[in-house]
TrEMBL record:
It comes from Nicotiana tabacum. This is Zinc finger BED domain-containing protein RICESLEEPER 2-like. The gene is LOC107802775.
Length: 407
């Protein structure tokens, strides 16, 4: 669909940069694919840890014995054991993170419970700790990408560069399990990196705390000898995008300027016409720098946590009118298009067996009631006749109030 739409828009010449920044992949989805690729490699290595958790949560009696062993070894962790789900990579991280803290408890149970035969070896415990340590980075970055208040695209660049540098370091690990896992993750990462590094690099320029300095700092760390070419690529795309915006905005600006001059000449006659000619004659002899040149030449702002990038561009529109419009569009690109829970799963949204047994009228009433209550909490209109209600009924069925009485 993206390719079809891109070809259609290119034929009409409606796209900026000839469509090079038309499609932006969801950051959380990319991270999900990268981690899933790594988990395919390490699945067997942490199987004993998974089997141990499954054994202990299998019955109430085993849970009681586990809690008793926890008290005997004076374990300070009180978190509940979690079993991972194959389609949710974060559940594997959470399982490992919690289980590792109970290592001594599992050791105690292996000595007292004759039926417990899946105790991991020291090497397997070590592998579990290494894997958990590596997945921690992806877990926290995905949470940041999927916050309710979505981060702007300028924050995307630093996080992605951080992941790339960490993967490059992990592939050199002495542990062959981590090295193999990272190699698989790097192949998946490179597939998406080439498609996003230009746009996210340009977006990072529109943070006055970084500008081109951030690109010049990270690109050499990632590309090495090819860094100068990649930096120039980002810079050229930024200037090309600036020219596209300038050309699109010049016509309305010229008409507005002519209209303004007509009003001025009508009200003030020719009193300032001599001044206009003076400005035009003196300006012709001075090389005019673009907004982008002046912006990039200014000093960087202090990197303070309370800095509001969007507010800065809002207040500097008179100084950089074209750049302000570019920043408005670039910084509005969401880093992630999914909620945090959806980012961690490869399965679709399913109605549970309990809810699927509800009568369609009852389910419709529940959905409507939820909409009304949510709108009421947010100060919106909450009356039934003014709020649209999602329906699960056939077109020939008439909604009635019997479902509401079943609530």
């Amino acid at each position: 669909m993206i390719k079809t739409l891109l070809d259609e828009k290119l034929n009409k010449k409606d796209l900026l940069l000839s469509g090079r920044v038309f499609h932006v992949s969801c950051a959380a989805h990319i991270l999900n694919l990268i981690v899933q690729e790594g988990l395919k490699v390490i699945g067997d290595s942490i199987s004993k840890v998974r089997d141990s958790v499954l054994y202990l949560i299998g019955s109430a009696g085993k849970i009681d014995r586990f809690e008793e062993a926890t008290r005997l070894v004076h374990c300070s962790c009180y978190k509940k054991l979690e079993y991972d789900c194959p389609t949710r990579w974060n559940s594997t991280y959470l399982m490992l993170r919690t289980t590792i803290k109970y290592k001594e408890v599992f050791n105690k149970l292996s000595l007292t419970d004759t039926n417990y035969k899946s105790y991991p070896t020291e090497e397997q415990w070590s592998n579990a700790e290494d894997v958990s340590d590596k997945l921690k980075l992806f877990y926290h970055i995905t949470e940041q990408f999927s916050e309710t208040q979505y981060p702007t695209s300028s924050q995307y660049f630093t996080k992605v560069c951080e992941i790339k540098l960490e993967l490059e370091a992990w592939v050199k690990e002495l542990n062959p399990l981590i090295s193999d896992m990272t190699s698989a993750m790097l192949l998946k990462f490179k597939k998406y990196w080439d498609g996003v590094h230009i746009l996210i690099g340009v977006a990072s320029i529109f943070d006055p705390r970084y500008k081109m300095r951030l690109v010049k700092f990270f690109i050499p760390l990632i590309y090495g000898e090819e860094a100068s070419t990649k930096i120039q690529e980002v810079r050229s795309n930024c200037y090309d995008l600036f020219q596209d915006y300038k050309s699109k905005l010049s016509a309305p600006h010229d008409s507005l300027a002519s209209s303004s001059s007509e009003v001025t000449s009508f009200t003030q006659g020719d009193r300032l016409s001599s001044f206009d000619r003076f400005v035009a004659s003196t300006g012709a002899t001075v090389e005019k720098r673009s907004e982008l040149d002046m912006y990039l030449e200014e000093d960087l702002l202090p990197r303070t946590p309370s800095f509001d990038n969007l507010s800065w561009w809002k207040t500097n529109g008179l100084k950089f009118p074209t750049l302000q419009k570019m920043a408005r569009d670039l910084l509005a690109i969401p880093v992630s298009s999914v909620a945090s829970e959806s980012a961690f799963t490869t399965s679709g949204r399913l109605i549970s067996p309990h809810r699927s047994r509800l009568h369609p009228t009852t389910l419709e009433a529940l959905m409507c009631a939820r909409t009304w209550l949510w709108n009421d909490l947010n100060g919106l209109t909450s009356t039934a006749d003014q709020v649209s209600c999602p329906t699960l009924l056939d077109e020939e069925d008439e909604p009635n109030s019997s479902g509401l009485s079943q609530l």
